[in-house]
Amino acid sequence: MPAGVRVGLTLLALWAAAAVCAQPADAPLDLASFPRTELIVRSPGPPAATHRFHVWVADTPARAAQGLMFVSDLPPSEGMVFPLEPPRVENMWMKNTYIELDMLFIAGDGRVVKILEHAVPLSLTTLSSEVPVAAVLELRGGSVQALGLKLHDRVSWQKPPR
Question: Quick check: 31 and 79 in contact, CB under 8 A?
Answer without folding.
Answer: no
